[in-house]
Design a protein that fits this description.
111 residues, alpha+beta, three-stranded antiparallel sheet, two-stranded antiparallel sheet, 16% strand, Puta_zinc/iron-chelating_dom, Ferredoxin
Length: 111
């Protein structure tokens, strides 16, 4: 998918709709790539991106305006939760709906 056709570069709704939680060792103090100062502790085993554990979540690493032009300040260092989230899914469309963005066609995997 080219950058021009990648809807994520204009969206960012997932970064401002859900809690981005992950195993604690994904933070840099556990050997992972995620900068510790951008996380908050959920419990002894889980952390989340600062700003996402809220009634109105917005990841501290999200730059730009949702639905217009966005980017991730730590894209190469993002957590597995962020790497595994996919556009063109029901979860993606739930996030987009919170911001009044049009749904994307849900892609179905062919076995």
């Amino acid at each position: 998918m080219s950058e021009k056709s990648n809807p994520c570069l204009r969206c960012g709704a997932c970064c401002a709709a859900f809690r981005a939680s992950f195993y604690w060792a994904e933070a840099d103090d556990g050997g992972g790539p995620v900068p510790l100062h951008l996380t908050e502790k959920i419990n002894d085993f889980r952390r989340c991106m600062r700003g996402t554990w809220s009634d109105t979540p917005r990841c501290v690493a999200l730059q730009g305006e949702v639905g217009r032009e966005v980017g991730c300040a730590i894209y190469p260092q993002r957590s597995s939760t962020c790497r595994e989230f996919e556009a063109y899914t029901e979860a993606c469309n739930r996030a987009r709906g919170k911001y009044g963005l049009a749904e994307l066609p849900v892609l179905v995997a062919v076995a």
